[in-house]
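Fold tokens
===========
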Amino acid sequence: MIFKQALNRRKFVRNFGILSTTLLAHKGVASITNLVSSRLKYEKVVVNGTEIFRVVATPSPTNSVWELQQSLDAGTSWTTITNATSIGGGKIQWDASSIKKAEFFRAKIVTATITVPNNTPYDIPLIEGQKLFDAMESLKLVIPSFTFTSQFHTGLGQFVTSINGTSQGGGLKWILFVNGVSSTKGSSQLALNAGNHMEWRLI
């Protein structure tokens, strides 16, 4: 399950960078004191007469879309906890009947991926309502090797004219594909969605 929260985009980019997407990672152990931090809290609580284990994550700073993940192999692989819930105040909560000593938890920013020629992929943190063009502008701020130019057309928005120094021309244009299908929307109209794979092709 993903959770959406608001934070100024420029503040996030300035302080943490586009690729710093995982802010929490703590080991699940028997002692409560070993699991308590300012960002991830573990506690035993009683609900309807039954003692359960509760994990509460407070992602900070947040940049819109987060998910709570767990690892059963000490952090080697991670899966999303789909039945976690948002409890307000920017917090994500998950209740379990038991927690193993080798169990890890983390809150992770949900991303979409954009691929450019030479098959370079970039992960873009999702911001509620953000369009692809704005995300690409943010990407330029933190990854100097990523560049692009565009031209504005009234009523249509921004058209990308070059990426990483390669310009369109000679009958070839930059075409946007989303999950392998040519997009019916331009970069300034296309909203980002969790897990989307966007690709620019010069064709």
Residues 2-109 form one domain.
